[in-house]
Amino acid sequence: MSKRYAVIMAGGRGERFWPRSRLQHPKHLLPIVGDKPMLAQTVERLDGFIPRENIFVITNREQHDAVVSVCSMLPPENVVSEPMGRDTAAAVGLATVVIKHRDPQASLAMLPADHVIQDSKGFQSVLDTAFQAAEKEPVLVTIGITPTEPATGYGYIHRGDELFDINGRTIYRVQRFVEKPNLQTAKQYLDSGEYFWNAGMFVWTAETIAAALEDHTPSLYRGLTELESGLRAGRSLEELLDEVYPTLDRISIDYAVMEKAGNVVTVESDFDWDDVGSWPAVARHFKGDDHGNTLRGAALVDGGEGNIVISDKDHLLAVCGVDDLIVVHAGDATLVCPKDKAEKIKGLVKKLGDDPRWKSLL
Amino acid sequence: MSKRYAVIMAGGRGERFWPRSRLQHPKHLLPIVGDKPMLAQTVERLDGFIPRENIFVITNREQHDAVVSVCSMLPPENVVSEPMGRDTAAAVGLATVVIKHRDPQASLAMLPADHVIQDSKGFQSVLDTAFQAAEKEPVLVTIGITPTEPATGYGYIHRGDELFDINGRTIYRVQRFVEKPNLQTAKQYLDSGEYFWNAGMFVWTAETIAAALEDHTPSLYRGLTELESGLRAGRSLEELLDEVYPTLDRISIDYAVMEKAGNVVTVESDFDWDDVGSWPAVARHFKGDDHGNTLRGAALVDGGEGNIVISDKDHLLAVCGVDDLIVVHAGDATLVCPKDKAEKIKGLVKKLGDDPRWKSLL
Fold first, then answer.
1. Do A322 and B316 touch (CB under 8 A)?
2. CA-based nearest residue to A185, from A158, A203, A165, A160
3. What is the DSSP letter of A274?
4. Cα B273 to chain centroid, rounded
5. In chain B, positions 252-311, which contact chain A (CB-CB < 8 Å)?
6. ipTM of the complex
7. A4-268: CATH superfamily
8. pTM of whole model > 0.80?
């Protein structure tokens, strides 16, 4: 039996795709790019590499039923739901406890649920290298995405010394993680060839990450050991989570562990990758019309260029005499926002949530 | 019994208010400004001046039932429906025949169905002057709207000599009608004090307009005499219209009569008037928010100024980071168009009508 596992982190709220995405129906449950929900595509991307009984999904209770339904190819007990959000370190810890309980020798890949990767074979090959590295040495492996442009929307990984080679791929020590840079800095990163995008994909053994959590975030680790001993005592995971989860520190795995640990390494990707974090990013995956408008569903642009107009099939969005606008209709709400202000959508959604009149539309 | 009649012309398609207005539900059937449909407001504006049994509405067969329903205060037989559009001269002719058949001594006011006039008393007073002029002399009276700005969207009436006074108001001969001017010319018109806006409101006796139609558009007049003799023979109006209407010339009353006749006079208005011909014009009648946004129904602007956002109460339009946009949601369609391109909406609606996918949305 394979000792390799995948854990797909599917807890995001997907505010940036409102109104198509909603609180209970975020981006990973939608076919934002492609015909299936992003989460289903993420599961299927592992076909032939990780057996389905070894694929877990971490989500939250609001989304539990929807996730189980989208992941009907997985055993339903592999969908693990947090009672509340406690940031990514807690989610990683939860995954570690659950999988270690099943298989103390397990190695696992932590994967985001909503990215676009067309080259599944290339993806699996890089993951295989990362697994081999993690199984060979007690290291925390991050996948370093080869940057294709001086993007300012991602964090970067600065690689250090070469450690060893696997399958012709170099494993580098990580010198440091850096926050989203400005454009000038991003250009320097790109030119240097020493920086990768941080896609939030990690591979490690359960043992190595457990040790790292114990070292770098001991209070969180104490909570996790409570979970672990509860499971060993035969108690239900749900009941244990209700008890323990509220006590866990809210901290990201990057801050808690990756930026502190000395045993972080990276393997460079050679597959296509896009986190499609916004409507303009989505539009890149569709063929535009002759005027660069991206039209989905009942959508029409009369005298305008570069618009993204996304509707249902039974509601016409008619856009007239304007350029570079995002117009998205979904059910009981329609969004209108310039493409170059797409980052404001998140703030808009927050405002909706604060207003009793609109709260139900999240 | 009063010999004064009013004929409200309610045949417009209201493309400029799509998607709120539809083919079968144009502007005059909607409460575009105010709480009641514009047509109902137009009828009620005559309260105490023209008895309701003397108020007629000319519409078309598609809108017949909706008009009867909106005009429930009128005898249903006063709603006369053209079997097809034949421009305004035919509509005036039809009204003349129908009213002359009832009362050969009638005088009548022809009124648009969808204008905004708040000062009903002032309106009635000017109409009364116009009726007196038309009853005193065989003249075709137009109401000249006092211009308040150098508007380029209206035709103008250039007044000529003073003819006589009624109730302290001067009746002028009309020197000429002029088409929509450019801004420079419009400014000259405004400065001269000799020009009025042509609001398409006319007052005349049935006898005088019949004679004018006979003189200036004899072929149309022949069709009208057929209608008249058919009515006199006791045949049904509907049947007669089916026979005669398709044969009538398509020509406007302005071209056919007003610009040619020598007996056209004008009386200057002193009431407020707005034809609210576009969404930006509508917005002038509503109080904006602190950022000059006009919001109706479930509408929200986050970081934007001067937008017109009109929705139903159960569909949120959320506009973010953009200025001076018109966004209108109605049922199965939403329009997005910059305010300064509002005149393009008509062309958009034409395109929708030409496309089998969208035709049903008109």
1. no
2. A158
3. B
4. 12
5. 298, 300, 302-303, 311
6. 0.87
7. Spore Coat Polysaccharide Biosynthesis Protein SpsA; Chain A (3.90.550.10)
8. yes
